[in-house]
């Protein structure tokens, strides 16, 4: 399996063996990610972090991953202070930056931006989110969290919230279909997962159940994956509030769940998970945010050829 | 209508290409895809809603230019039953059906306004052609958005 110099653009073309290989590599990175072991695996290598949109977790965990492996990070900084503000195309920006660094992490507001960057770059491009398009490293860290905290084989998972626009849940469903998961989709009818995605993932081997109530599904699943519902998707505040309250979980919601249930969330949350749940063994979202580091370390090590 | 009357409407060509069996009403879109008449100096004749053996069809005749099959395959997106006849000295020297290509470039624009291919970048639009269902679908190579209806409306 060849990862060196590969671009990481979307999960769509990732076969299961490649995903498993990355997850296994991530497991070996965990002690380094925790700071318990030192590594200079990427010493002398430089990573450019080009974020055309704000981000906290993704940007910081990529930077941490590079630093923990002994590499250096070059940050674009503010878009307003760069040549992009003068109207430079993304293609030109990439052709300039690839001369300075060994790999580029890119977040951009337009769908397909990472694909375009990969056509112009001589160094690997790692897609950190392109508009409503792909965010493959989020999917990989979600899978890694499920593997570490629950199990990927024979998984019963429920995804709740905005399943219509949420790119995170779309690519997670595609990836979980490779493992034959049983997926329950919980959303109000306005935010249902698009029909073409549902039929795609069924064709790839997943079993799908749809409902609009968390209570209907939560007692039967191993993992509950919550997502944030965005206010701007609704015509008025009252309608938003109605839906948001319906998709909110509290300690009370968890009274009959499996003891091993894990609750995940890509964060940031608003009020869909009551903070009282944070101290229960079900809460998994902060660990999930940490797992972004070993997963991104594994990817950087692989595409830069430090590990195979 | 007699054969002679039809002949008078659109005359036979001596040399060139006749694209026959174009889906009725799509001839002008076919010209657009092929960049005609700009890409040819010969006479280009268009017959719209002509009566054929299998119902109405459009026909395009291009004089003094032989189109290559792969050049014409792109029209299969909107006229999948079209045939390409190469004419020499008033005789048909070869007759081929168009093939639906697996990939098209710079023919159709992406319907997603937020797709990078619709911004001011030095790239051309690209689509993978999906023919698995009976309905032909185009998937944008950049953003993945599908076009499954009214493809002609999105021609560049």
Question: How would you describe this structure to a colleague?
Answer:
The complex is a heterodimer of chains A (308) and B (156). Chain A has helices at residues 16-33, 57-68, 90-97, 113-120, 136-149, 167-177, 195-203, 214-218, 237-246, 285-303; strands spanning 46-51, 72-75, 103-108, 125-130, 156-160, 182-186, 207-211, 223-226, 262-264. Chain A has 308 residues and is of the alpha/beta class. Chain A has two domains: 16-134 and 292-303, Rossmann fold (3-Layer(aba) Sandwich); 137-288, Rossmann fold. In chain A, the strands form two sheets. A five-stranded parallel sheet of chain A has the order 7-6-5-8-9. In chain A, helix 5 (136-149) crosses helix 6 (167-177) and helix 5 packs across helix 10. The N and C termini of chain A lie close together (8 Å). In chain B, the strands form two sheets. A five-stranded antiparallel sheet of chain B has the order 2-3-1-4-5, covered by helices on one side. Chain B has a four-stranded antiparallel sheet with strand order 6-7-8-9, with no helix packed on it. Chain B contains three helices and nine strands, in the order H-E-H-E-E-H-E-E-E-E-E-E. In chain B, 12% of the residues lie in helices and 34% in strands. The longest helix of chain B is centred in the first third of the chain and has 8 residues, at 27-34. The chains are: A alpha/beta (308), B mainly beta (156). The A-B interface holds A 10, 12, 89-91, 108-113, 115-116, 119, 130-133, 196 and B 112, 114-117, 119-123, 140-146.
Key features of this structure:
heterodimer, A: 308 residues, alpha/beta, Rossmann fold, 5-stranded parallel beta sheet, 4-stranded parallel beta sheet, 37% helix, globular, B: 156 residues, mainly beta, Alpha-Beta Plaits, SH3 type barrels, 2 domains, 5-stranded antiparallel beta sheet, 4-stranded antiparallel beta sheet, 34% strand
């Amino acid at each position: 399996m060849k990862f060196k110099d590969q671009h990481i653009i979307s999960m769509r073309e990732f076969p299961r063996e490649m995903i498993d290989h990355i997850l296994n590599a991530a497991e070996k990175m965990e002690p380094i990610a925790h700071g318990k072991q030192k590594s200079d695996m990427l010493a002398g290598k430089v990573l450019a972090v080009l974020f055309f949109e704000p981000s906290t977790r993704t940007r910081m965990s990529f930077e941490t991953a590079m630093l923990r492996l002994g590499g250096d990070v070059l940050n674009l900084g503010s878009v307003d202070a760069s040549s992009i503000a003068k109207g430079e195309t993304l293609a030109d920006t990439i052709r300039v930056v690839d001369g300075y660094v060994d790999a580029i992490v890119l977040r951009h507001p337009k769908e397909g931006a990472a694909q375009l960057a990969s056509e112009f770059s001589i160094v690997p491009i790692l897609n950190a989110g392109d508009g409503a398009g792909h965010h493959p490293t989020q999917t990989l860290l979600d899978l890694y969290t499920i593997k570490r905290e629950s199990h990927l084989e024979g998984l019963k998972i429920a995804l709740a919230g905005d399943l219509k626009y949420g790119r995170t849940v779309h690519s997670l469903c595609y990836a979980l279909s490779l493992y034959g998961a049983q997926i329950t989709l919980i959303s109000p009818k306005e935010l249902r997962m698009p029909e073409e995605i549902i039929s795609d993932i069924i064709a790839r081997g997943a079993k799908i159940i749809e409902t609009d109530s968390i209570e209907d599904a939560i007692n039967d699943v191993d993992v509950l994956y919550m997502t944030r519902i965005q206010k701007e998707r609704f015509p008025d505040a009252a309608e938003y509030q109605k839906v948001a309250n319906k998709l909110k979980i509290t300690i009370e919601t968890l009274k009959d769940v499996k003891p091993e249930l894990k609750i995940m969330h890509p964060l940031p949350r608003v009020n869909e998970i009551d903070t009282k749940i944070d101290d229960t063994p079900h809460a998994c979202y902060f660990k999930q945010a940490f797992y972004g580091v070993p997963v991104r370390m594994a990817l950087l090590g692989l595409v830069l050829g430090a590990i195979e | 209508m007699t054969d002679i009357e039809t002949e008078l409407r659109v005359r036979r060509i001596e040399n060139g290409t006749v694209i026959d069996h174009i889906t009725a009403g799509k001839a002008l879109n076919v010209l657009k895809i092929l960049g005609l008449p700009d890409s040819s100096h010969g006479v280009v004749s268009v017959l719209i809603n002509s009566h054929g053996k299998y119902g109405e069809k459009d026909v395009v005749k291009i004089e003094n230019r032989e189109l290559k099959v792969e050049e014409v395959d792109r029209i299969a997106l909107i006229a999948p039953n079209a045939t390409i006849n190469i004419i020499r000295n008033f005789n048909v020297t070869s007759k081929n059906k168009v093939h639906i290509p697996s990939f098209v470039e710079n023919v159709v624009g992406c319907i997603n306004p937020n797709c990078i291919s619709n911004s001011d970048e030095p790239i051309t639009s690209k689509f993978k052609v999906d023919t698995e269902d009976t309905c032909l679908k185009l998937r944008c190579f950049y953003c993945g958005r599908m076009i499954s209806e009214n493809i002609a409306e999105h021609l560049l």
